[in-house]
Amino acid sequence: MLDVNIYGTAMTLFIIIYFEVSSRKLNELFNAEHHKFIKLAHRDSLTGLANRRYFINEIETAIANARINKGTFCVLYFDLNNFKKINDNLGHHSGDQVLLEFALRLRKLNRSSDLIARLGGDEFCIILPGLNDAEAIKQKIHHYSQMLDTPLLIDNTPYKISASIGYACYPEHGTDYETLLQVADQKMYQVKRGQNTDIRDTLRSKA
């Protein structure tokens, strides 16, 4: 409802507009702003991916669902190799460009059911529902390594980067999120140090 009252003389004219806003409309506005706030609280400010807090919440949900339905899922753990050198030699702006491009490439490979998150720095994780087969996991890792074959453009200059990737599966490697992340993180560092030849050879394979 809109009420308009006009007050004035020959010299002045004032229009006072009264808006009557229903409680329902106020609730809608509040809920919309609240939803926007929650969405921002769950997103990484640089890449727009899920942040660590939201990732932990989702992996706990995945565990609960898998436990009830006797399902499986896999977690991939990514760490960019020599990322510190990019930041040190080219600056944080260039480092941010690398992270943004890496996040974009991850999105292009993912299924709608997968969840990608940036845990912090140059560390990323993906939840892959329904995946628990060793060969299928190796194939996934191979696809993710291939996506980095094309150099990244940083300030119009091509740079070749690589990532070390570890994984853990529910329930084979753990039944709580701390254990799953710990196992995936350990496997990732084994690859980085050249100790996990199984995953390392998968990353190097061009078959």
Describe the structure.
Strand 6 (152-154) and strand 7 form a beta hairpin. With 207 residues, this protein is α+β, with helices and mostly antiparallel strands. It has helices at 23-41, 52-69, 83-90, 92-109, 134-146, 177-192, 197-204, and strands spanning 2-8, 13-19, 73-80, 115-120, 123-129, 152-154, 157-159, 163-170. Helix 3 (83-90) runs antiparallel to helix 4 and helix 5 crosses helix 7 (197-204). It is globular. Residues 14-18 have low confidence and may be disordered. It is built from 7 helices and 8 strands, in the order E-E-H-H-E-H-H-E-E-H-E-E-E-H-H. Strands 4-5-3-8 form a 4-stranded antiparallel beta sheet, with helices on both faces.
Please identify the structural class as seen in this structure. Answer: alpha+beta
Number of helices: 7
CATH fold annotation of the largest domain: Alpha-Beta Plaits
- The ordered H/E elements are EEHHEHHEEHEEEHH
Text of the CATH class of the largest domain? Alpha Beta
Contiguous low-pLDDT stretches (5 residues minimum) are: 14-18
The CA-CA distance between the termini, in Å, is 69 Å
Q: Within the largest sheet, what's the order of strands?
A: 4-5-3-8
- Provide the helix percentage: 40-55%
The chain-level mean pLDDT equals 83
Radius of gyration: 25 Å
